[in-house]
Amino acid sequence: MAAYSSDFKHLFSNLGQSYLFCKRLFWKTMRFEEGMNMKPMKINCLFIYDPSKVKDAVPITSRLRRNDQSSTLYSTSIMDKTNVICLIFAALLFNVNGQGNGAVRLNNYGNTDVTNTRGVVEVYFNSRWGPICIKDSSYNHIGDVVCHQLGFNGGSSGSVSHDNPLNTEAVLTTVTCEKDMLVILQCRYETSVSSCEPSESVEVHCNTARLSDNPYNGMVRLQGGYYSGQGMVEIYCKESWKAVCNDDQFFKGEAADVVCVQLGYNGYQHYDKILYNGSAWLHGVDCKSESSSKCLSDCSGGSCRDSFFRCTSYGVNVTCKYDTQNSDEGGHINTCKIKSSRADSGLSGGAIAGIVLGAFAVIFAPLCACCCYILWIRIKSKRKDPERIPLQNKPEKD
């Protein structure tokens, strides 16, 4: 589930004088300098007898689990009923903004952690998770694309292990991918799945190396999400990954779209600011005039700066999706890498002038020197040429 930074506040009247104040603090929203650990979400449930005074909360034993993550609930113990209200409210929060259409995961004997490198492929398609069914052993780069979507640099695919079948109904079949695709729904596929056996699901083994291990200037990634295509936006510049700062809150839906398209999706499901205190490369990113772009570096404020700075308020969290009703296709693995290479090799006017002058110095200067030398030799030789004395007629003898 994507992170929210906004405080969720709701007041429930209780006996005409008590109020339950449920405030969502953070879910995976606190990040510090160069750190990857994020604090889990907490929901504080407090009684307010006087709106100007809030009593200290104490932990209660109830635990709410979702996606194998626990969240501690806090409440005063004055009335047990309020704990139930807070749990219901928390459950609603947990179910807002989950994975986007087209997300993938690897199911390894029931473990679907986003860091898994092997398991049966499951795709979130039309609001449910299901495997891919392949009957003829034609896997057509499914492994590479699924692993790309999970952030790895490739992988292999094959039939599912006999001891790790999934009994859920398949969502895709006859899937054909190209090796440079980034998202499984970029591939050609069919959705009319019939009589598919659990053993005909696809199992994938991903390489341990990640796409971000071989980055390029302007490359983006999403960090800290529970699903593929979800997390805090980071960009690579000058040999380091750092955040996209949103202190000025310029980052809007158009920029979220471009981030998702660069990652292979064709749109965003949700974006929000999240509390962040650490290094950043970008701020003031505005893609309103570049909404058709596939690279964040094409947007205003989206290019790498000369140096990083400290972001003290907000970063950006994005959840991407692949909308099958949208004819737009997301970027491929080299779409923005090629643009980055061209930009890195681009020449300024001064550089071009320098090259021209250098070429003149290397080619024309020696030629001019040679011509001058020949001319000097000729002039010198003329000066040394002796004067001719005319012959005098000898007197004739008598």
Automatic annotation (TrEMBL):
Regions crossing the membrane: 351-376
A single GO cellular-component term on record: membrane
Official protein name in the record: SRCR domain-containing protein
Keywords recorded for this protein, A-Z: Disulfide bond, Membrane, Transmembrane, Transmembrane helix
Limits of the SRCR domain: 104-207, 220-321
PROSITE patterns: SRCR_2
Disulfide bonds: C177-C187
Organism of provenance: Amphimedon queenslandica (Sponge)
